[in-house]
Amino acid sequence: MLQEQEIQELIVQAKRGNTDAFGQIYDSLSQPLFNFLFARLRQKEQAEDLLQTVFLKIWHNLETYKPSSRAKFSTWAFQIANYTLIDYWRTRKETSDISLVENLSDFALNPTLYEKYDYLWEALRQLPDDYQTVIDLRFRQDRTVIETAKIMGKSQVGVRVLQHRAIKALREQLTSMNKI
Amino acid sequence: MFGFNSKNRKIETLLRQSRQDFGFDSISTKARIMLAVNVRHLSKDDVRHFSLNPRTWPKYAFGASLAMLVVVSTTGLAFASTKSKPGEVLFPVQKLQNRVVLSLPLPAATKAQIGTKIAAKRLRELDEIQKHPTNKPSMLSAEIREAQESIAQAAALVPDNETEETDKITSDLEGLSVQHQQALQNLRAAANDDDLKLELENSVKDATITQEKIRSLKHRKGSDNQNPQNEGRTSGSGKLKLRLQKDE
Predict the structure, then answer these.
(1) Domain span at residue A142?
(2) What are the sequence ranges of the domains in chain B?
(3) Residues A64-115: tens digit of each pLDDT
């Protein structure tokens, strides 16, 4: 992934209409954003669809993005991704075809690592959506509490509380699966 | 309290250790995004859910068709912004552009027309090679392969519903497949190289199979037309199903 300063320089160019610069932003952020979407959706095509939607929203709203020393550009991108996901579920979740849910292991770039922790992924899947989101952002995407709060539209205290509850729920789930 | 915290920390560590990247088609996804980004007419409403799901096509068909028109008019031909041919270095770029165009949410008949135009282009290139034989057998092999694939793909894109438009597309495709077979037979007759002759023989067989599929498409439509009870029924046997159509 590019450093924050490099991304900010690319954003300046992209705002002027430089699509190559935007392409480089895509190259830098597409993998983590896809990981975030796919882990939640568990359908590769849908995740790719939403990834497209996210980047097009980023492109269309680039003018409104204001750089800040306290928040990286990726925080804003993840915020868009999270809201796109919520928006998608609002309209689709009840009608989505469960038979299309795929095995994450089929797409893991490190299958051995996945196999070692597949029980964790399975346990996570049983948790409520916002628990999964906070765990993914805090521990897989390595977001700070401040960044996670911004992405999820919560207060910092709210994120800490949610994280605590999520980990507790995960622990209970793992215990019921005899994994800890 | 300590036990509780240490257990939580253990889980947090496990979560961090289990971090993983997942594979996806980054290149095609990027190409679709960049195509949309370069088409200024795509409005924010069209972006709301830019989807490959055919269920959303009617909603976005107008905007996407307009986008397609803009791309076609500004590039000369959406699927030929490079003039590269099979076997040339930049040809994969052209193929990717074709894929991107065919993945836009366009009406099925439009996609079939585009597929037919791509197939016609491949055949013109094969014709040229007949008239001006190339010193590069790899280029000829590539052209043969691409021509076959493009006709088969175009046939797979023809929608099930019978209209004047789809009738015309099927007829055009039938014409192209006959032309294709003839070109292959001519090339086989003129070939000196044994490997090339064998390749051409196999290609003639493939071309015959594709031709039969196209003919059966045409005749199935014809017989469907005669039986009023078959109206609205889609027949899928023998037809290739594209990934994009699996939600239908």
Answers:
(1) 105-180
(2) 31-225+240-245
(3) 998 887 789 999 999 999 999 998 888 765 555 555 567 777 888 888 888 8
Question: What CATH number is attached to the domain comprising A55?
Answer: 1.10.1740.10
CB A36 within 8 A of CB A81: yes
Looking at the fold, whether A131 and A156 belong to one and the same domain comes out as yes
User: In this structure, are residues A84 and A53 in contact, taking their beta carbons and an 8 Å threshold?
Assistant: yes
- CA gap B54, B60 in Å, rounded: 10
Interface probe for A, chosen from B5, B9, B13, B21 (most Cβ of A below 10 Å), is B21
Task: Specify whether A89 is located in the same domain as A130.
Answer: no
Report which DSSP code applies to A68.
B
Q: Which of A60, A104, A174 sits opposite B44 (nearest CB)?
A: A60
- Neighboring chain B residues of A139 at a CB cutoff of 8 Å: 12, 15-16, 19
**Nearest neighbour of B20 by CB, restricted to A44, A51, A108:** A108
Q: Give residue-wise pLDDT tens across range B177-215.
A: 888 888 888 888 888 888 888 888 888 888 888 888 888
**Which tokens hold the place of B195?**
């490997």
Q: Please give the radius of gyration of chain B, using alpha carbons only, rounded to the nearest integer.
A: 23
Q: Are residues A66 and A121 in the same domain?
A: no
Model confidence, pTM: 0.56
- Is A7 found in the same domain as A25? yes
